[in-house]
Every structure is written in C-alpha cells, then in structure tokens.
Amino acid sequence: MDRGRIHSLNPILVIGLIMNTMVGVNLLGLAHHASKMGYNLWWSPILLGCIVSLTLIPMMALCRRYPEDNLFRIHEKLLGKWLGRCFNILIIVYAILNVSTAHEGYVRLVQTSMLSNQTVTLPLLGLTLVMVYITNGGIKLIARFCLLTFFFTGWMIFLLQYGFQKGGMTHIFPLFHTDWRSIAETVHNSYASMLGYELVLFFYPYIQDKNKAHKHVLIGVWIVVLLYVMILLTSVSYFSEWQMDNLIYPILNLFKAVELSFLERIENLGIGLWVFLILSTSTGYLWVARTGLEEMAEKTRLWHLLVPTIISFLFIVGPLSVERQRYIYDKVTVYMAYGLILWPIFLLVLHSLRFGRGERVS
Amino acid sequence: MKRASWFIAAVVLLLCLCGCGREIERPSLEDMAMIGVMGFDYVDREKIDVTVSVPVPARNKETTQVYSTHASMTSEAMLNLATKAERTMSLSQLRVILFSEEYARKAGIGKVILDLYRNPIVGENVYIAVVKGTAKDVIKGTYNHRPEINTYLNNLLRPRVETAFSSFATIHDFVFMMTSNTMDPTLPYLIHSNGEIQIFKVALFRVDRMIGLYSQREGKLVQGFLGRERLPRMSFEFQHETKTGKKQTEKIVFDFVRAQTKVRSKGSLKKPVISIDLRVRGMLVGYSGNKDLEKRSQLRTLVQELETRIKKESMKMLVRFQKQGVDPAQLEESIRQKYDGKWTRETGLALYKKARINVKVHLEIVGFGTLK
Amino acid sequence: MQNVDDLSSLSLKMNDEEVHVFFLDTLVDVSQIYQTVFLPLQRSDGREPLQVLPFAQECQLDDMETLMSNLLRGHTILFFLERNLILHVNTFQVPHRSITKSETEATVLGPQDSFVEMLEINLSLLRRRLATPHLKVSSYTIGTQAQNKVAVIYLDNIANAENVERVKKRIDNVIYHGFVGMPVLKQMLEDKPYSPFPQFGLTGRPDNATAALLDGRIVIMLNGSPDAAICPTSFLEMFSSPEDFYNRWSTASLLRMIRFFGLFITIMLTSSYVSVLTYHPEMLPPALLTILTESRSRVPFPPVIEVLIIELVIEILREAGIRMPTKIGQTIGIVGGIVIGTASVQAGLASNILIVLVSVSALLSFVPPNFLMSNAIRLVRYGFILMAGVLGMYGQMLALAFLFGHLLNLTSLGTPYMAPGVPRQWTDLMNSLIRAPLRFIVNRNRMSRAKQKHVRPFGED
Q: Where exactly are the transmembrane stretches of this chain (chain A) (predicted)?
C-alpha cells in the first residue's frame, strides 16, 4: 500500500503542511493579540516572519546533519538514551498541550457562537474522533489533508473584501508610529499564531527533496505571513483600535460583515469550515506525540495514538478549571515552544563538540 | 475482527448520540419568536422601556406581536420578555434597533449597543436609528398599505442612494464611530406621523449621547466628505438678474454619478490646514432656466456657479461644525494620519478647532438629459 | 457420475471398434456433435482416430481430474476401449444473450454495445477495438466450487508492470467458493473493503473499458458477468462518463462540473436544512425566513426526524420502482412522488420546502454515472443529516472533514484515490473537473503510471 514509502512528502505537500499547521486557532484572535501596536499591527506578521526565518536556520542545519532522523532520534543519539528520553517526554507533553490548545480555543468559540446552550463535550468528542482517524493515516495523510484544507478554506480570503470595502485604508497612517516596548509585547502575544513550523524537525526525514526543503518551508511560512498581513490590513481598515483591543475573535466579526442576498450570517459557515484548519494543526501535533511514543517503545501500536488523544481530551473536559487551563495554554505552551525553537542551537553546538562541524550522521 | 469491533463501537456511539434526544428536541424555527425590531425608551436614569416586535408568519396575512417591559439592561429585558411570550425569544433575526430621542439625549445609547455587540447571536448588520417621540409608538403604530413593521423598518433603513444623506449605521458602524477617536457618530433620525415613517434628519452624537441634528442637505455633503461615492440628488436654486432687470430663478437638480473626496491636512500641528478636494461627476436631471446647455461657454458658467455654490455651502456648514466642536465628517482622521504621539479625542478636537479648512470643488457635468 | 441427468452417453462403432461417447447435452449443440464427431467417425474408413478427428486431443488415462473438468466445460469425451485411448473434442456451444444497449450507462452518442455474460464474447468486443498484439489477456480459474474463469486484460506496452503484478497477486490470493458476478469479486480485490466507496471502476461498456486500457489501466473480467472492473481508478473518474469525450469539450466540462458539485449539494442540502432550522435560524434572509416558518408551522416533528422520514420515503420509492415491472413501476413513481409529496405537505407532516430540497438532492444523487458511487453518496448523506441534527453546521463540517479524511486515506490498487486533486498533477487536471479540448490532453493519466507517458508525440500540429 501507499504507506510503506518513507520519503513521501513532495514539495507541495511540504508547503501545505507548513502552512496549515501554522494557521489554526490563533488566527481567530490574531488582531486581538497584536492590538498593543494599535493600527500599526498590520506589519507585525512580517516581523514575526523574519524571526521565524531566523530560527529556521539552526533547525534546518540540524536536520541536514541528521537527514534520516527526527528530533526524538537525534536526542537519543546526541544526549544518550536516558537524557534523550527525558527530553522526548517533554516534547510529547508539548505536542499534547498544543493539541489541547487548538481544540480548546476552537471548541469554546463554537460553543459561544454556534451552539449556545450546549456543553463542549459533544463537539469536542467529534473533533477528537476525526483527528484520531486522520492521524492514524500517517504523516502523508496529514499532509494531504492540509493541502485539501487549503482548497477548502483558501477561498474565504475573498470574503475579506466585504470588510475591506466598508473600512478606510487611511488607518494605516502614520506608519511605524510605535515603540519598542509594544512591538516586543505584540511579538510575544502573537507568536503563538506562527507556531507549527517547528514540526519540520519531526517530519524532515519524510521529505523527498531534502536539498530544497529549507526553501519550501520558507515559502510556506511567507505565504502564511502574506495571509496574516492581508487579514490584519482588513482588520485595521474595518475596526477601530478600541474594537481590536476588545474583541476576542475579530475574525468572527469580519465574517459577520459579509452580506449575501441568499444567505446571511456567513460566520456560521466560516467558523464551521475552520474545523479543517484546526484539524490540520492538531493532527500534526498528535502525530508528533505518537511518533515520540513509538520511538520510545520502538514499535507501532494503536495505543500510542490513543493515549495522547485521551490525555488531550481529558485535559479540556477534565477536572482542571478553565482559568488554570487558559494559563497553561497561553503561558506554558508558548514558553515550551520558545524552548523548542531555540533548542536546535544547543543541539548544534553539542553536535559540533561531539562529531565536528558539518558532518552528516545517518 | 479488530476493525469490525471498531466499527461496531462507532455505530453504538453514534446511536447513543442520537438517543440523547435532548439535543434534537431543541426549539426549532417555528418554536422561536424571532425579534425583528427592538425599541428603547427612557424611563429614568436606571430603567429602560424595552419594546420588541416579533413577526408571526401566517398563510395570508402577516401579523406582529409586540411585547414590552422595563429593565435596566438588554439581557435583563430579554429575561423578562421570555416569560411573556409563548415561544422562545431569540435575538438571532434582530434587524433594527430604535432609540427614542429622549433616551439618546439623556442616557446615552452606548451601554445598550455594547450589550448587544457582545452577544454573538446578534448579527453585525443591525441598523440603528433614533426616533422622535417614543420608539414604542413607532413599533406599535399601524401603517397602511405597508408590509408589517419588521420588514418595513428594515427596508426603510437599508442603504439606498435616495437616503444616503444619513450614515445607515449598523451596530458595528456605530461602535466603530463611537470608538474611532476621530469622529462624532451620526445616526438617521426618524419621524413618525400620519401612518408614515420618514428619515427626516441626521442625529449627531458625542460618543454615545445625542447632541443635535443636522439637515438632509448637510448630511449629503457630510457623506461626500466621508468618502461615499454615490450621493443622493441635490437641488440648487440660483437667482439671476436678466439684462432687462427682471429677476429670474434658475433651478437645477443635480444627480451625482460619482463623487470622490480627498481630505489632506497640511501645515504644522500648531496651525493645521485641512484641505478638502471634492471631485464630482454628475448629470442634470432637472433644469429650469434659459441657458443653452449645448453651448460650452454657458455650460461652463453653470458649472462654475454650481462649484461655488457647493463650496460656499460646505464651507458654511464646516465652519459651523467647527465652532460647535463637532466633527461628523471625520476630518480629524486627516490630522491623525500626520500626528506623532499619543492620539486622543481631546487632542483631535483641539487641533480640529484650530484648523483652517479649504474646500476645493471640481464639478463635471456628463449629461443633461435629451433636451437641450 | 451419479444424478447428473444431462450426461449423455452412447456407444457407436468405428471400424468395428466400439467407442463410448460422453458429453453434457446442456453444454453442447447435439447437431454440432453429429457434424463434427459422429459423421467423421462413421466415415473413418480404417484411419486412425486422431487423423479422423484432427481437433481432438489425447488425454492421459489416469488423469481423471482433467477429464472431468473438460467434460464440465462442454467437451465431448471419446473412449476407445480396445486401443486404450481417450480423446476429447471441444464441442462447447450454448445459447447466449445477444449484445444489447447498455441499460445502466446509457449514452446518447457513441457506441451502444455492451458486455454480455460470456467472457469470450466480451474479449472479442475488446479485441475488435484494440487490434494490437500488446493486448494481453491472462486467465485464471478461481472459486473452489464454481471454477470461475477470470481474465486480466492490459496493454503490456502501456500498463504499469507493478500494477499488473499486484492485480495478479491479489487474484491468486482470493479463496472463495464461487463468484456470481464481477461486483462480488471486485469487493475482494479492493484495497479497503470496509469503505462505502467503490475503489475500482465498474463498467458494462466496451468503449469505457477500451479507453481505460489505452490509458494504461487494467481491466478484470469474470466469465458470467457483464461488467468489467477497471483499476486503478480515482474518485474524480467516478464522475466522468464516456460521453464526455463524445461531446464537445465545453459541454462536457459543464456536465462534469454539475456532476461533481452535485455531490456537494446532495450531501449538504438536506443536512443544511436541518442545521439552519435547528441551530442557525439567523442565517436565513427575511424573505426565506417567512416562507420557511410558515411551511414548518404545522409540522409536528423536529427537523431531523422530518428530513429522515422524507428521505426514507424517497429511498423506498426508488427501491420499489426498481423491483416493480416497468409499467407499474412508472405509475408507482408518479403516484408515490406526487401523491405522497402533496398529501404529506397538506397533512402537515412535512414542509413543502423540504419536499423540494429532498427531491433535488435525490435527483442529484443519481447524477454520477457510477451506480456504486451514487449509492455510497446516498448513504453518506444520512451521516450528514444526523451530524447536522446533533451539532448543526459545525457537525456538518466535521462530517465533511471526516469524509475527506477518509477519501484521502483510500487507495485504488495502491494509488491515491483523490488523485489528481490532492496529490495533484497539473497535467491531469485537464481531464478531471473539466474536460479540456483533446489538443491539451497530451499525457496519460498520471495515476495509471503508464510506461508511455504521452498519448501522442509532441510537436504535432
């Protein structure tokens, strides 16, 4: 069957995978998270894109040195079995947390905007089951699903024109009128919306064209940046600063601006279709958690998939209070992500100490 | 076997979900009372008189149910109303919000609007208007030969070129205007008389309190400055003295095909200059005068007369606004674009009051009908 | 052989030597036996039996099994007792259905013949169209009891050798007592037997099969079944009909798009009715809202139940229409459709808007030319309706995500089912949702992984 081949990701799939793991629940609140910069927030994704591109350099350098290994195996090779496994567990926890973050944010939005007077359990259960099904198909199915997601949700960009027409482009002036403090805060608050590209550390072994992988990942990242800039420009012209600061889901309100003669309140459709974006993010992370468990157990079992799923499910509907959950999603996950993104630098140093520079280990 | 057991498990799960029944027996469309119009009237500083109208669909004749209650918040009012209605009240089809002038002047409409803006069930495209008298009377009124009140009001407030002198504010627009820090919100002002509702004037707000009114004619110019491309027709009247010394009136009805405005500010922030460049193309739809419109020189005189007239009128209006310290035309936005530092409404208004305003009108007549 | 009443045995004399003759008279034409066997034997004039019967083959004396199977295939067995010689002559001759128009895949233009129940005739239909020595037919006998004959047909200069091997291997691995039709065998050869979606194409039209062969696909046929399975196939191909190539390209493209988007409409239409009425009444524009509320006002069921009832009624009508004799069937269709529809609206059991929606979606579900696909879509629709009833628009989208996750996961003979959509291939898009002018269809479909990539040489005017 189709799953046997290991180098299964062609360039388009790599771009699609990167794009759709990045775009997810955080886009819903992007304009809100970045609102510290006022009307200048529209160029903040470019800044974020630059940071992402910079942090990609050590990641790809590390991957090039271990073309056939994912980060879990790199850990075991560089840090030894026990220390490596400790870090692997941390990464698995991080991946599970990310699944929960994506699901929790989205399901709460669905509950408030579409299914009022229902609990989150049922929608979440459905989401989780579909996620498990897709993840069970392996990274190739996830990548294909990401590409399909692009076709299914990409057209929604055209809906932006409704918001754009109503607003005034002049809001973007005065350009670059902001200070370092708010830039730093904005970058910190909205960096979560760029997360997802670090998954390249895990699916790199499956990429077909490894020489051009860096380029393809960058293409994916900058398409996302372009997308964010378009959405934020529309937000800037449609909303006042106060609105961006106070609306939790500005995208929801942008959807509400759409007026079609045969269908009103298109946000129900839009937020519903968003499930594709959520799934393309969460399946990626769940797959990472599964691969991690498989690497540790050194065999493939279904429970490697089910255990992280159940943990992430219980995390949301379990006994944890909503505030504590929010703290974990907004703070712990993001700091762990920072750690993971900067981690390759340390590993590269360790690699050069142990094996010398530029050597490929396979 | 393994797959089969999975399949069976899935089917059982699905059956369980359907068996819930509780979810399925939600009130569906016909069990809901879809509020179409909400009206808010002033009682005292704390209490609002909330009136809602619910269309009742029937085979041939549509009827409307009207409920009203006293409450301090919209959500509280909804609670009270829910106990009065035989169906489940829902705000999901809300289309028009009416405020009485008294409420808008005394209490300010911000609290109500934000309460509805927060509610995800309420759409963005809900029109807001201020009515003379009480909103309750408007909602309860009978209007002959008109569709029932919900449809009537919704259609009336829907943006059309003919009524484009007011800003057709939806919830979103009003919140935007209220919080943009560069303008004073405006809303259409309705009067209700003899079984008719008319968009009569434009109500002017400072933040969320109504402070005044301005006329339709001024409203057209304000909308032009705000950048609306299609403006309603305007009529002009010129007094001429012919060679024989007879006084003669020349009447023109001008139809704007396309208006384009550029508002720029120049000069230092101490002495700002706002220059407005209004470019209008349009057609003469009515003309009573004795100019030969086919002659270029005479047409040009007409154009010049119109240009000076529009310029004069807008200058007069803007200076009046400036003196009153109100800015419905969002002229402050041009200053904000150049302003470096923390922008607040106070700085904006201070600069606006200081500013010198230049209006430049460029008018082009693209047609004058088929009669010369 | 006991209790086989159609076994005829008689003895006759040849050169004063006794010959016993056996044959199954249900599988042979007696007059033919008389012409080809009896007459030459009687006029043998002392020649050797093999000279008299040049088409006869000698059989090993101890090989009862071959003898038996030959007898069961319509051969005539001759025992020459004194010489200790057994000969068998192929005298198989049975009446068969004549080649008629295709009922299930009817087209207006193009060839009208269709496969029949005899493998030999079907093969001849293909051979006539493909006069090339590269057309290979490998035959297998499967089915432990029935001994069905299966033919794997491909063009060996075009079809991917790996694919051919896969098919052969899968056929070798099939163990079953017997096959009554190709669809049964097809289910055993497909990649994911639990999926509701057919993963091999099924056609009764020789032109369809020929086109597939030319594209490098493999066609599997079973003796006794008037259909051919085509593999590998993709999801999109289930929505194309051979008529697309007989029509002009623009018409064909329009029709293909209607078929494909019809799929989305048919799974979304009635479920949207449920979710909008139950969860999102705000999505209705005022005019539609009035009409809907009015028509729903007397219906006693919640929307989900209402939709399920009406959908099931339509399904029953369809099923009843198939079983009934043609003349009554039409009446039932009209009576059922009009009477039940109107009456249920007037009785207040269903809203008239729903009747319109259900009939439109029922019509659309019959649009795909592939019968198995249209069945699968109708099944999937119930899933969507239930999900809409439980979770509204969100449930529908979740079901859509699951559906597409499933479709992406499917393979047909190891090639992705959603090709060329999601492992995309630009050149294949020319012949997918649209049917480009033939000038632009230069490449064979990528999913057949043909040995020769191009349909014709480049640089052609």
A: 12-30, 42-62, 82-103, 115-134, 141-164, 190-207, 219-239, 271-290, 302-322, 334-353
